[in-house]
Amino acid sequence: MSTMAKLEDFRNEPFTDFRQKSALLAMEEAIFRMKSEELGREIPLRIGGRDIFTDAKIRSINPGNLDETIGWVSKADRELAEQAMQAALDTFESWKKVTPRERAQYLLKAAALMTERKHEFSAMMVLEAGKNYAEADADTAEAIDFLNFYAREMIRLSEINETMPLTPVPGEHNRLTYIPLGVGVIIPPWNFPLAICVGMTSAAIVAGNTVLLKPASNTPVIAYKFATLMEEVGLPAGVLNFIPGSGAEVGDYLTTHPKTRFVSFTGSKEVGLRISKLAAETASGQIWIKRLVAEMGGKDGIVVDETADLDAAAQAIVASAFGYQGQKCSAGSRALIVESVHDEVVEKVVRFTKQLEIGLPEENKAVGPVIDEASFRKILDYIEIGKQEGQLLVGGRQAEGNGYYIEPTVFADVDGKARIMQEEIFGPVLAIGKAKDWREAIAMYNDTEFGLTGAFFSREEDRIGEALETMHCGNLYINRKCTGALVGAHPFGGFNLSGTDSKAGGYDYLLLFTQAKLTSRKL
Predict the structure, then answer these.
(1) Active site positions, annotated
(2) pLDDT attached to residue 2
(3) CB neighbours of 67 closer than 8 A, spacing ≥ 6?
(4) What is the spatial distance between Cα 213 and Cα 208, in angstroms, rounded to a whole number?
(5) FRET label pair with 127: which of 283, 316, 338, 446, CA 20 to 30 Å apart?
């Protein structure tokens, strides 16, 4: 593989403007093509470059149309997980010797191909994950961004290897290099089934590691499309091994495996804490402390003071709470509003919420289904709890359709200690609390075990300055919604039980997949 010329500076992939008729038609055509050509296929495991079909299958279904099967995905067991581990271990010995620039080229080629086929990837997420056009398009754009960003970051780190400004010592030549860790287990979530899957996997690979990718059981087909794309650009067999399977069986087995060097996880607090506990135990034959990179849950909120642009604040609250049905770890599921403008903001939030149209994602409705029956039941249970803890203003019921549809739901007069104010629901449910002033609103915002994203709406610079210091979260936004982090611009990760603050899409993220080696030579 030839040496690359100097790359242009990183730029975020533009979002598609679906107000343009040509863009709308292109997406509709891609959805039709996915439905006619790709749905219902049997999908294999990929271990060491080999297809393996199993009798046990994961049935991926369209959450917006339960009669539609997206794919029948082969399911790994412990024996196949062990085969994948051995393939990854064998391949690591050669992959770690590939130069960083060569590894980066695979990512750049994949980014170029994904850009060409952007609507194809987005269309699959419309069908498998229940995303509308804009949400799916943003997911694909972020995946492209991760590939382009991490490729450039690996090149930058390799150049730092040559120029790291260590303190000079007479008579010595000292050098610090970042070398790969080994074999990692990648466990991405279903809610950003392409972007986060691509980001976690490509970061580990470009840093010189080999991986076992265990996709979310709700969205394995889009993950397979990514895995086959990496093969198409020539990634050597065994670098990326695709092994869908049960978290309790395959996930636990690999997390506790003595040869697992690191686990990269995005998902719920409960699963993340279980992985942390399992990974902390030293298995027989294990000669390292496993590294865990974890991005977990959130109970994110937006604080609004009386000086804010109230229309902008209400629009941000609704977008943050109900974008992708509230199924984002960054979703603004709480709003804390000072009492002097509380009623006015609540009225606007209710009005904007009632304007949201519910229906099939492939028809590009604003609000689609939640991901599966378990989520559907859990969210409806929380809505019943909310009816006891606050005043139901809008929504509160199952919505029509052959899928897991729930009305966007708003509760007001919710106490800061209420369950719907404290517990992550991961659905279209917003809890609104009233504060006597902006400092009390910030205190209410901080009263959580999480700390992922937040937003503060105000026109007062002194208040903004204090909010920047005192609102305790990994990603804090001023006068904008609390969702929608951009790779390179908004490195993403949270405090407290929101995870290890890994800062995905940031300039230090790849260091999590390397170890620093100092060499000193006497002259």
Answers:
(1) 295, 329
(2) 39
(3) 402
(4) 15
(5) 316
The encoded tokens of residue 227 equal 């895995």
Q: Copy the structure tokens of residue 176.
A: 């610090």
Chain centroid, CA 271 distance in Å: 15
pLDDT tops 50 at residue 3: no
**For residues 113 and 233, what is the distance between their CA atoms, to the nearest angstrom?**
9
Tell me what pLDDT residue 165 has. Answer: 80
Strand positions, DSSP E, 348-461: 391-394, 409-412, 429-435, 453-457
Return d(Cα 507, Cα 491) in angstroms, integer: 8
Q: In what order do the strands lie in the sheet with 300-304?
A: 391-394, 409-412, 429-435, 332-338, 300-304, 453-457, 475-478
| Helical axes 195-206 vs 133-163, angle rounded to 10° | 20
234 sits in the region (left: phi over 0; alpha: psi -120 to 50; else beta) called left
For the four alpha carbons of 404, 424, 216 and 188, in that order, the dihedral sign comes to positive
pLDDT band at 162 (very low <50, low <70, confident <90, very high): low
Ranges of H-type helices in 38-132: 78-95, 100-116, 118-128
Q: Give just the sign of the alpha carbon dihedral 112, 490, 309, 421.
A: positive
